[in-house]
Input
Amino acid sequence: MRIPVIAIVLTVLSSVVCLAQDPPASAGEQVKLPALTWQGTGCKGEELAVLMGCPFDSASPFVMRVRLEKGLRLPSHSYPIDIGVTVIDGALEVTFLEGEKKRTVTLKAGDFFKIPAYASHTAYVLEKTELQDNGVGPVFTTWEDEKCKPGPKPDPLVPLCARGR
Output
């Protein structure tokens, strides 16, 4: 007889705890983003802000924004994970390098593209651009021949992780 009473008490307590928390957003409800904290990546003309998760942690789903200045050229590089990229604003050309073959696509606001894991690519920013990247970490950049032009002071990126968001 004591087991059912304990089960009822635990059920009631868990319900009270759930009611005390903020209710989850319902379908179609707008969720307001917190103010973004932008930091340099160490590449001149590039900044990022983490919205969710931590791109540097293993098996961590993440969403981050990337801002790129007009005229920025990113040399050939790759990532060890698939990254889904949405162009929020601006335009850029991305060239995928497959051996001797090159395939260049021009992407504008509203476009979505996938960067497959280990796909070597370059980028040229046609106008000031903001991207939204999502994937499952860890993500880091492997530069093929040359690195990006260094920014004035590379910022530490780990504090950008949106823990608890």
Notes: Confidence is low (pLDDT under 50) at residues 1-23.
